[in-house]
Design brief:
single chain, alpha+beta, 4 helices
């Protein structure tokens, strides 16, 4: 009986080794996939922090020149600089001018359920060969992307309770479009989602200077 028990224990150990050997590649694939998407999540959280910090900064900035209330380009350049400073602190995200973008929009929301969007469309040296900058597309740095929010989208976000009429508000919207390139280049991941994933992060912040009169 002792000999038979030893043989059976040896068989069970051998079977366990075979099963572990078969499962090991699958476990490694699963672990490496989790690591890759951990990188994605980490960078996405950094992008959210960046849009939030940029929107907070612009909340205290005057977007118009006085007394004629024309758009002030420095307002948007300051947003671009704040974004760059925040990303520098993160340390590993750099926007690619060929595919990524920063989009800044300013909204003046009134109680008659209308929203003026700034800056208005105009031709500048940033978007040559593209639709004009500003307007419904937002102020774009590299002119690769346009805002994903319409004026109606913003109005709906600021409706209070069951009221159909939002209070007067001035709102700044900051959006970042960023193409994440797979760091590990795992074929079982890139074969499904590709080599890049476009991340879109955004934040709203109040801007009292944009409130309608």
């Amino acid at each position: 009986m002792d000999t038979l028990s030893k043989i059976r224990r040896g068989q069970f150990r051998g079977q366990s080794i075979v099963e572990f050997t078969l499962l090991l590649p699958l476990l490694l694939m699963l672990l490496s996939t989790l690591i890759e998407f951990g990188f994605v999540l980490n960078e996405y959280l950094d992008l959210i922090d960046t849009t939030r910090e940029t929107a907070r900064y612009l909340a205290d900035q005057e977007p118009f020149t006085q007394p004629n209330n024309e758009y002030r380009e420095d307002f948007y350049i300051q947003g671009l600089n704040e974004m760059g400073n925040t990303l520098d602190r993160a340390g590993w995200i750099t926007l690619d001018p060929a595919v990524d973008d920063l989009v800044i929009s300013l909204f003046s929301i009134s109680t008659n359920v209308s929203a003026a969007r700034y800056p208005a469309q105009w031709n500048d040296d940033r978007c040559t060969g593209s639709p004009p900058n500003g307007g419904p597309m937002g102020w774009r740095v590299y002119c690769n992307k346009t805002s994903k929010f319409t004026a109606d989208d913003v109005i709906n976000r600021f409706k209070t309770g069951t009221s159909e009429i939002p209070p007067n508000n001035g709102v700044v919207l900051v959006e970042i479009f960023y193409n994440y390139h797979m760091r590990l280049g795992l074929p079982w991941v890139t074969g499904i989602v590709g080599d890049t994933i476009e991340l879109h992060a955004y934040s709203f912040a109040p801007n009292p200077y944009a409130e309608p009169d």
